[in-house]
Amino acid sequence: MSIRWTYAFIDRPAPQAGPAAGFWTAVTGTRLSEARGDDGEFVTLLADGADACVKLQGVASGGGGAHLDFSVEDVPEFVAHAARLGAETVGEHEGWAVLRSPAGQLFCAVPWRGESVRPPVVRGSRLDQVCLDLPPSGYDAEVAFWSGLLPDWDSAPGSLPEFHVVRPPAGLPVRILLQRLEEERPASAHPDLACADIGAVRALHEELGAVCVAVFDNWTVMRHPAGGTYCLTGRDPETGGLARRSG
């Protein structure tokens, strides 16, 4: 079993889905697909000359967030593998399935449609990561779960003790960062962008209506106009690795 492609899925409450789509197409240099789903809740951010790796969903309840879609050749096999590791199947659809990790993070298994060409870096940044924000009580189990679910990926401690990175093989567009929170609260997720220059990308995003929430040494937390949070991280947009610091 292997993962053939990955998608970062941005989830927003349905009334905010339109503004969210406008913001994310602008910062990723993409255009929207036709809406699909029973209520037109799904759209894909299309990249010219490349395969899409970001989608957006208008959710009927909850505050939204983000999740991952894994494109595989055999969906039932992937679902069974996830179940053996402790995942729960939340919904089964024609050809695809929604699952929940042990800590409660949703993710999907979908058929691989031949995607292979990664979208380019756009204006110094690339949306290339979904960060799972995990309560302390569930963190170790989630690290074990995602490492076991993705055995061909590189699973390793991050740059700080509260981080763990699960990196895909070369060519796959979205990786996973697990973050151990300081407080007990339900698991959630948000998208991260790798930025050659965080300050420059922040300025571009603020021109589009985003607001800075907090600044840390190597990442900045932002809130986009449709209300969701995301991070600008000091990583090489081409490789996803931490940017080298001068001096």
In summary, what is this structure?
Helices cover 19% and strands 39% of the residues. The chain has helices at residues 17-28, 75-84, 136-149, 198-207; strands spanning 3-13, 31-32, 42-46, 54-59, 65-72, 88-93, 96-100, 106-111, 125-134, 154-157, 163-167, 175-180, 188-195, 211-215, 219-223, 229-233. The radius of gyration is 17 Å and the shape is globular.
Textual characterization of the structure:
The protein is of the alpha+beta class and 247 residues long. 19% of the residues lie in helices and 39% in strands. It is built from four helices and 16 strands. The protein has helices at residues 17-28, 75-84, 136-149, 198-207; strands at 3-13, 31-32, 42-46, 54-59, 65-72, 88-93, 96-100, 106-111, 125-134, 154-157, 163-167, 175-180, 188-195, 211-215, 219-223, 229-233. The strands form two sheets. The chain has an eight-stranded mixed sheet with strand order 2-3-4-1-5-8-7-6, covered by helices on one side. A hairpin with a 7-residue loop joins strand 11 and strand 12 (175-180). The chain is globular and about 45 Å long. The model has no long low-confidence stretch (mean pLDDT 95).
Spans of at least 5 consecutive residues with low confidence? none
What about the largest sheet?
Answer: 8 strands, mixed
Give the count of helical stretches: 4
- Summing up helix and strand content along with how strands pair, one would put the structural category as alpha+beta
Q: How much is the average pLDDT? A: 95
Q: What are the secondary-structure elements, in order, as H or E?
A: EHEEEEHEEEEHEEEEHEEE
| Distance N to C terminus | 44 Å
Strand order of the largest sheet: 2-3-4-1-5-8-7-6
Which of globular, elongated, flat, extended, rod-shaped describes the shape? Answer: globular
